Amino acid sequence: MLQQPAVFVDLETTGTSPVHDRITEIAVIETRAGQVVNEWSTLVDPECSIPEYIQSLTGISNDLVAGAPVFAAIAQNLLEALSGRLFIAHNARFDYGFLRTAFERCGLTFRAPVLCTVKLSRRLFPQERRHNLDSLIQRHGLDCAARHRALGDAQAMLAFVEQVRRTVPADRIDAAVTAILRRPALPPGLSENDIDALPDTPGVYLFYDDRDVLLYVGKGIHLRTRIMAHFSADRRSRVDARIVQQVARIETIPTAGELGALLLEARLVKQRQPLHNRRLRRQQELVALHWDAGTPGAIPTLVSGGQLDAAALSGVYGVFRSRRQAKNTLHELATSQALCLKRLGLEAGSGACIGHQLKKCRGVCIGDEDEIRHHLRMLEALSALRLARWPWSGAVGIRERCPQSGREEIHVIDRWCYLGAARDTDQVEELLASARQPVFDLDTYRLLLRYLQKHPQPAVVRPACDAATRPPALC
């Protein structure tokens, strides 16, 4: 597989976003039948200033690129050099994405089969933990004349592949390369151009059929990778199989990160009701327990997600997908903690509850147990179901930034209620000033809670407060 015509490509750039940043250096090593037939590199005038930290990393300064050709001047010749060849790069989607975007600015289309040497290393050496270029250079004793310069890095990639050819059986190499290059069979309604246009940034995707009916809404940290997983036969679910037959259009909505994708997906599923979404239900289908724990003898009641008041969440216990699930949980607590079915709201009427008749209730329903004692036991039993307290004193903004696109969002949240996304701190204040009474949503609560447990120290913007203040632990 590695004997086919190929180009080893490396770029240096002004940053990580193909949309906002520009190329400063390109190196291409062309091979045929495993032999080098051409090698060249050039500096590129990015037509913008190079950040100081990039200059320090690469050694490519603004003075160095002054007088170098702009990308448009070399685009046609570069396209001819790359066309019809296997595109090999380290973290290949980065270099490939930058080049495709740069060509598009010049009105040119570039497409090629892509082999990533990071993925190749992972498949051939799965026992190793690290597969970045520095690790490969050190582990395999590769020569690299100039690290973080395009030609030096391209030569290191070539040296890695040549060593793989010498030390790894050919059938293992062929299997690894075939697996990396294999593209899932596309749905009949989609073209290669549809797939190539997909971004690999965080965001939400929407599948439509040929009548523009919304089939499915999903999210991903890497949108392109996540979408392609739907079309892989070895990972295809029953829902995916139906989607593959129906999808004719894909819409993507980039976000700044994981939290934005989670919140947007939840909102779109509730608003748009896609045909094939089952995991995220409507708010009204979720239920919780509402209980006035400060009043002995008070009985818990089941309320739908749409009935919850954001200002009175201290009396909310549990988040359940159905009333049946909620009642089953209460029955389990009654059995394990000897609680009264009537005090839990599971039975009505006078006299002893069924639990007492079965000797599983201590008799508060007929006066055999003190009301306060039962109330305290009930409070202890339900405490594990209580909604987590909001870890800040008021509304906050959680900042996210996507390194690939440079997109930044501040998600404004008050007492587990999502108020919206802002571009900067001024817009945060505007959003808070115009916000209506916060609407509590059980799905949003659950995803925010999971996110904060996974990211206990998010980048927080606190309006009119100290932005460096960290949240206390969730309880």
Secondary structure elements and pairings:
Elements: E1 6-13, E2 23-32, E3 35-43, H1 52-58, H2 62-65, H3 71-82, E4 86-89, H4 92-105, E5 114-116, H5 117-124, H6 133-140, H7 150-167, H8 170-181, H9 192-196, E6 203-208, E7 214-220, H10 223-230, H11 238-246, E8 249-254, H12 258-272, E9 287-290, E10 301-304, E11 316-320, H13 323-337, H14 354-357, H15 371-382, E12 396-401, E13 408-414, E14 417-422, H16 425-434, H17 442-454, E15 460-461
Parallel strand pairs: 1-4, 4-5
Antiparallel strand pairs: 1-2, 2-3, 6-7, 6-8, 9-10, 9-11, 12-13, 12-15, 13-14
Helix pairs in contact: 5-8, 6-7, 12-17
How many structural domains in the coordinates?
A: 4
Gross CATH architecture of the largest domain: 2-Layer Sandwich
Q: What's the name of the CATH homologous superfamily of the largest domain?
A: Ribonuclease H-like superfamily/Ribonuclease H
Strand composition percent:
15-25%
Question: In words, what does this structure look like?
Answer:
By secondary structure, the chain is α+β, with helices and mostly antiparallel strands. It folds into four domains: 6-181, Nucleotidyltransferase, domain 5, CATH 3.30.420.10; 192-279, 3-Layer(aba) Sandwich (GIY-YIG endonuclease); 285-385, no CATH class; 396-461, no CATH class. It contains 17 helices and 15 strands. It has a five-stranded mixed beta sheet, sandwiched between helices. It has a four-stranded antiparallel beta sheet with strand order 14-13-12-15, with helices on both faces. A three-stranded antiparallel beta sheet has the order 7-6-8. Helix 5 (117-124) packs across helix 8 (170-181) and helix 12 packs antiparallel against helix 17. The radius of gyration is 29 Å and the shape is elongated. 33% of the residues are buried. The model is unreliable at 464-475 (pLDDT under 50).
